[in-house]
Design goal:
alpha+beta; STM4215-like; 8 strands; 22% helix
Length: 147
Amino acid sequence: MTSIPAAAEPHIRAVQAALTAALNQLPTPTGSIFGPGIAAYIGARPDADTNCVVVHGAPGMPSGSLGDRFADLTVTVQLTAVGTGPEQATAYADAARAALLTSTLAVTGRVCWPAWQLADQPVLRDDTVQPPLWIATAQYSIKSNPA
């Protein structure tokens, strides 16, 4: 029996690791590889990085049975794919979705269920930065149980 709810942060780091591995293998429409320059960050991107995915995590919602009310944890993450054009933002969002929905996330002491997508938004131009960037956002949910 667990006595405290599981932490969300290791789950968010596991998402970042899965995305980092997948984004380094992302093919372009012409068949080339975007390469190791596509990074996954947690919370914010460096100003100089105009092609990346940013992971925004929530604290998580503990749940469980009467025998162990903190056994399960559901964490919601938002992925924001950033690109210099709408094509890049869409491609990064597609690769991030494929990585997250097909990966088994590794969280020490926990068993993660397959992630599922909750919502998304159309690709938008962000004029609050210069030069303007394009972003594609989607939200996913991850559930885990004690190992």
